[in-house]
Recover the amino acids of this structure.
């Protein structure tokens, strides 16, 4: 594993203006963001089916029977099509670059030899302080390998981003309920 960071942000929820009656049931909501970078040996076309098989998320849109929507961005199927077609539709036009997306999750990777080149950037510092009342951020591991070093060692770098949202009750990291 190459470098990464994890951060927790806590704030008081928005209770509306004096003209709104939106009192939150919480006195504190917390969100979490984390980014991990991994070195990948071999072709991403070999790695993508293993990501799907791991079952950590339902990547991109799916139909009512749970199958990936054909040609939908954000799916493993689209990413595999992109790589097998070398980033071009049969008419020669460019395909949009693939990423895997699911609520609160995103996987992206280097695509240096394709028509829309992309390289995962070096690790950014922890996000700046927000307007919240608590923030903690740490780099993992403490003495990380650089993204460039991971790319040199493995060939491709993959980033895995996780985020929760204080605005979405389904994706909150932590809440403190208002007393009765």
């Amino acid at each position: 594993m190459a470098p990464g960071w994890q951060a927790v942000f806590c704030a008081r929820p928005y209770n509306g203006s004096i003209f709104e009656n939106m009192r939150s049931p919480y006195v504190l909501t917390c969100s979490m963001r984390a980014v991990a970078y991994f070195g990948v040996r071999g072709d991403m076309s070999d790695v993508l089916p293993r990501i799907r098989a791991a079952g950590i998320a339902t990547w991109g849109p799916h139909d009512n029977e749970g199958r990936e929507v054909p040609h939908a961005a954000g799916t493993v199927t689209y990413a595999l099509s992109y790589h097998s077609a070398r980033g071009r539709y049969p008419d020669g036009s460019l395909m949009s670059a693939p990423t895997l997306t699911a609520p609160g999750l995103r996987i992206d990777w280097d695509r240096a030899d394709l028509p829309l080149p992309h390289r995962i950037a070096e690790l950014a510092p922890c996000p700046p302080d927000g307007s919240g009342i608590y923030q903690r951020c740490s780099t993992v591991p403490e003495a990380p390998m650089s993204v460039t070093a991971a790319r040199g060692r493995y060939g491709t770098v993959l980033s895995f981003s996780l985020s929760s949202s204080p605005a979405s009750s389904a994706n909150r990291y932590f809440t403190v309920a208002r007393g009765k």
